[in-house]
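User: Need the bound-state model for S-adenosylmethionine:
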Amino acid sequence: MTKNIKINETLEKYISNNSYDLHPVQKEIIEYNNKLGEIKKLQISVTQAYFMQLLIKINNVQQILEIGTFTGYSALSMALAMKGEGFITCLDKNKETSETANIFFKKAKVNNKINLIIGSAIENLNNLINEKKSFDLIFIDADKENYIKYYDLSFELLSNNGLILIDNVLWKGEVINNNKNDRMTNIIKDFNTYIKNDKRIEKTILPIGDGVTICRKL
Ligand SMILES: C[S@@+](CC[C@H](N)C(=O)[O-])C[C@H]1O[C@@H](n2cnc3c(N)ncnc32)[C@H](O)[C@@H]1O
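Assistant: Bound-state model below.
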C-alpha cells in the first residue's frame, strides 16, 4: 500500500510555512509571477526550489546549468544556495522574461553569479559543449518537445558524479491516465521511458512539484 499522501495547495503552504524562510527577492518574484495569470504556473514550486537548494549545499555544487529560466525563481533560489565561486549559466529564448529575471538577480545581489544567455537552448548547449564546459548540476525545465535532446546534450556537459534534474515528469499525474493520448502527455511518457532505459545513470522520480526526475551519472 502506498504511504504517500496527496499534497494540495494548503498543505504545500503548511509545509513551506513550517520549513524555511524565503529571501525577500524570492517573495518578490512569486508576487510578480502571481500577477501574470495562467503562466505563473511555469515557475517551480517553493518546496522544489528548497529541495534543489539543499542538494546544492549538501554536494557543494559549484557549476550549474539551467535550461529554462522564465522570470528567474529557480535560478535565484539556486544562486542563493551556492557558496564561494559558484556560478550558474542559464539558457532561455525569451528576451522579455530574461530581462525581468536579470532585474531580480541584481536586486538579490547574485547577478555576478549568473549568466543568462538568450537564444535557442539547443544552439547554446552545443556552444557550451564546443567550449568544453562542465557542470555539477543541470536543471532541465524548458520546452518538453526537446527534453530528450536537452537530456542527451546535458549528459555530455555533466561532470563525474554530477546530477541532472528534469521538471514536470509526472505531467499533473496524466502519465498514468490510460485515457490520455494527447501529444504532450505522450512526449513526457516517451521521455520517462528513455530515462528508464539509460544505463549510464541511476535515477528516481520524486513526487514534488509536477514531478522531478533526479539522475546521477555513474
Ligand atoms: C517552465 S519555464 C521555466 C521556469 C523556471 N525554471 C522557473 O522556475 O521560474 C520554461 C522556460 O523555457 C523557455 N524556453 C522554451 N523553449 C525554449 C527553447 N527552445 N530554447 C530556450 N528556452 C526555451 C521559455 O521561454 C520559458 O521561460
